[in-house]
UniProtKB/TrEMBL annotation:
UniProt keyword Nuclease, yes or no: no
InterPro entries: ATP-PRT_HisG_long (IPR020621), ATP_PRibTrfase_cat (IPR013820), ATP_PRibTrfase_HisG (IPR001348), HisG_C (IPR013115), N-reg_PII-like_a/b (IPR011322), N-reg_PII/ATP_PRibTrfase_C (IPR015867)
Compartmental location: Cytoplasm
Organism: Streptomyces vulcanius
GO molecular function, one term: ATP phosphoribosyltransferase activity
Lineage of the species this protein comes from: Bacteria, Bacillati, Actinomycetota, Actinomycetes, Kitasatosporales
Annotated protein name in UniProt: ATP phosphoribosyltransferase
Annotated EC: 2.4.2.17
Gene transcribed to yield this protein: hisG
Domain Histidine biosynthesis HisG C-terminal: 210-281
Length: 285
């Protein structure tokens, strides 16, 4: 069976389980379950701490895993990204008391508190900055107030927590992260599970496409068909079928979901009618 690591808690857990369910895989019913077997799909899921997943995958004990790009890099494990998943996006940045630090060059000789020591140490080394890095497991916002560090480095979403702690971000983002599928470096060339891995990736890619596109159907006059097709080119090309009423055709094409309303407006303006959109639940491209 294909052995897959899945986050057991945190911001990665729920969206990962939802995506796997949409891809047709059985998922656990209770949060206490640490392992389930999906015999129909020949997959075994292991629910692990997100921070540990890269270690298990790089060791070869598990074939692939879902974790955060930031956790993968911070671990220093011998695993690599094979598919970005687009959820749990975040930005990793430095923050300090207003007016105390303005750029990364100002970190020289200072102490930085973070839960991601590997990322921060690597980033400082890349810029030739000599600074101390203190590892904290959480609530790094209080590190400056308590005198543990002059600067913190943490995940920033809205920035509300930082502002409440009297801090502000500075400099360019250290990195941007999202959920990713990872695999041991070099596993592809020697892994007998390769066909199952590729099938797994195709299923997840199908979910990503299904979430990104909608199917659009509409009727239009033949003389307006070229303009309509230019608006809805589809992936290869749209499906065009003649209607019973002479001079009219029915068109079907996949369009980006975020542009669907604008495309409907444009189609209506050129005379298209009976314009419908429907959700796509699964696909293979």
């Amino acid at each position: 069976m294909l052995r897959i690591a899945v986050p057991n808690k945190g911001s990665l857990s729920g969206p990962a389980a939802d995506m796997l369910h949409e891809a047709g895989y059985q998922q656990r019913r209770e949060s206490k379950e640490l392992r389930i077997v999906d015999p129909e799909n020949e997959v075994e899921f292991f629910y692990l701490r997100p921070r540990d997943i890269a270690i298990y995958v790089s060791s070869g004990r598990l074939d692939i895993g879902i974790t955060g790009r930031d956790l993968l890099i911070d671990s220093g494990a011998g695993a690599e990204v094979i598919l970005p998943l687009g959820f749990a996006r975040s930005t990793f940045r430095f923050a300090a008391k207003p007016g105390t630090v303005g750029a990364i060059e100002d970190l020289k000789g200072k102490t930085v508190a973070t839960s991601y020591e590997g990322i921060v140490a690597g980033h400082l080394a890349e810029h030739g900055i000599e600074a101390s890095v203190v590892h904290l497991d959480g609530a790094v916002e209080t590190a400056i107030e308590l005198g543990v560090a002059e600067v913190i480095a943490d995940v920033v979403e809205t920035g509300t927590s930082l502002r409440n702690a009297g801090l502000e971000v500075f400099g360019e983002p250290i990195m941007k992260s999202e959920a990713v599928v990872i695999r041991r470096v070099g596993a592809e060339a020697e892994d007998t599970a390769e066909p199952k891995v590729q099938q797994f990736l195709r299923r997840l890619q199908g979910v990503l496409v299904a979430r990104t596109y909608v199917m659009m159907d509409y009727d239009c006059r033949v003389e307006q068909l070229e303009k309509a097709v230019a608006l809805t080119p589809g992936l290869e090309s749209p499906t065009v079928s003649p209607l019973h009423n002479e001079g009219w055709v029915a068109v079907r094409a996949m369009v980006p979901a975020k542009e669907a309303q604008r495309i409907m407006d444009d189609l209506y303006d050129i005379g298209a009618r009976a314009i419908l959109t429907t959700a796509i639940h699964a696909c293979r491209l």
